[in-house]
Write a structure and sequence with these properties.
Helix content is 66%, strand content 2%. By secondary structure, it is mostly helical. It has one domain. The protein has a two-stranded antiparallel ribbon with strand order 1-2. The longest helix has 20 residues. The radius of gyration is 16 Å and the shape is globular. The relative contact order is 0.15.
């Protein structure tokens, strides 16, 4: 699924909501991060096929970070041929989920059948987490850090933006929640959401 097209009114709404959320959270303005969220993550993830784009070998959508990371170890199954794209997706996915759906993460990973319930892996070591959202945050930070390193030869601007997201990942989860609140309060977005659903 393609993201919301350029010039579509939803894009302006996403930009305004992102700017308002950043101001409300009193974060230092970072135009690169603001643009990445308002022009990248939100228009892309408005469609569920882009949010849950990683599938297992049977074609089932993977919705939990543990499942996604386990599946990524099987070459060619992620649907993302490039490691930079994969790391960016993991960073974006975890930021979106922890900022907007933290409660859902906590409920989902408490199921014994959930890979996240068993798998709390950072790199090659296993680490216990009291809160599953902390696991998502750790994975998001690590993914953005890798994306920063991988993008350095291509774009120093993107490398700096991914570096900022990695270093201050948790600071950006609160604005994501505010963005969701601003969007839910907007009548145009509510109407568009009914059409998209």
């Amino acid at each position: 699924m393609t993201p919301v097209p350029e010039g579509h009114p939803l894009r302006g709404l996403f930009r305004r909501a992102t700017r308002q959320a950043m101001e409300s959270a009193r974060l230092r303005r970072d135009p690169g991060v603001e643009s990445h969220i308002g022009d990248g993550i939100l228009p892309r993830f408005v469609h569920v096929d882009n949010l849950y784009r990683i599938r297992d070998i049977r074609g089932k959508r993977l919705t939990e970070i543990g499942e996604i990371l386990m599946e990524a170890e099987t070459p060619g199954l992620t649907g993302l041929s490039d490691d930079l794209l994969f790391q960016e997706y993991i960073g974006d996915y975890t930021l979106f989920m922890t900022g907007i759906f933290a409660g859902s993460i906590r409920r989902t990973v408490r199921r014994p059948s959930s890979p996240d319930h068993v798998l709390m892996r950072l790199g090659s070591i296993f680490v216990p987490f009291d809160d599953p959202v902390d696991y998502y945050i750790a994975q998001g930070r690590a993914a953005y850090s890798k994306a920063s390193r991988l993008s350095r030869p291509v774009s120093s601007r993107k490398a700096m933006m991914f570096g900022e997201l990695s270093q201050r990942f948790q600071s950006y989860t609160a604005p994501m929640g505010l963005i969701a609140a601003y969007l839910e309060a907007d009548p145009y977005f509510r109407k568009a959401k009914r059409i998209i659903s």
